[in-house]
Amino acid sequence: MQKYNSPLHIVSAHIAELGITFGQQTVYDKSNEIPAVRQLLDMLDIEGCMVVADAVNCQRETAKAVVAGKADYLLNVKDNKARHRRLCPRQKTMDSSRAIEKNRDRIERRKAFVTHDIGKEEWAGLACIGAINTQFRTKNGTTEEWHYFISSRKLTADELLKHARLEWSVETMHWLLDVHFCEDFCRVEDKDVQQNLNIIRKLVLNCIKLYKDKNNVKRPVSKIMLECLLDPLCLLPLL
Question: Where are the alpha helices (DSSP H) in the chain?
Fold first, then answer.
């Protein structure tokens, strides 16, 4: 039995529009996530896709891997201060778009800016630089954040808002794994068992997501899981 001394880090490939996971790569240290993402990209058919990744994976070699796979990238930039100084004076001449969402007592306002006038950049296929200003208002007050992006596709401000927002589906998937399967509290030591359990959990979430979308089901994931636990026949429509 192969054991490990620290939690596994699993890099997932997630189809945001469908809300399903279709690939993953396991690493034993957070610092190994960067090459693991490139390995995962090499394993997948990403042609024509928009690959969205967080600031950790804003790497030139990762951008090259995406372009080599005949796809486009949207990467969250790490050096926010430099981008802020560069883009802020130009906002009035940039394409912009706004979006407002309300969820219970939380109001989120997002404004996106994009430019295709990027000059000389050492990034494979770079065609667009953008920024999103996000304001959160709750009963406790208002907070504000800036996020900066680079992309190999000439995005409009509306498209930047759409793709950046879809990235949150990955966070939703991790939240569901933790809330409904208590994955963060799993104490299985065998590496293979841990990986297999993670795959099974994601398959379950994929089945429930596809079932909900196909049948326009509004019941929450937790209720569907409970129904299947109490009555195995309820599994049949999901399978």
Answer: 33-43, 60-68, 80-87, 157-166, 168-181, 191-215, 221-230, 235-238
Tokens read off for 109? 């306002």
Q: What is the DSSP string of 84-117?
A: HHHHGGGGGGSEEEEEEEEETTEEEEEEEEEES-
Q: What is the pTM of this model?
A: 0.80
User: Which are the contacts of 193, defined by CB distance < 8 A and separation ≥ 6?
Assistant: none
Quick: pLDDT tens for 146-203: 899 999 999 999 999 999 988 877 788 888 888 888 887 777 777 788 888 888 899 9
- Measuring CA to CA, which residue among 65, 28, 24, 61 is closest to residue 47? 65
Would you say 94 and 112 are in contact if contact means Cβ atoms under 8 Å apart? Answer: no
- Among 20-34, 52-66, 95-109, which stretch is predicted with the lowest mean pLDDT? 20-34
110, 215, 118: which is closest to 157 by C-alpha?
110
| Nearest-angstrom CA–CA distance, 2 and 191 | 6
Work out the number of other CB atoms within 10 angstroms of the CB of residue 217. Answer: 13
The encoded tokens of residue 73 equal 């990238």
Tell the residue number behind the tokens 């796809």, with chain if given: 71
Structure tokens, 138:
């709750």
CA 25 – CA 40 distance, rounded (Å): 6
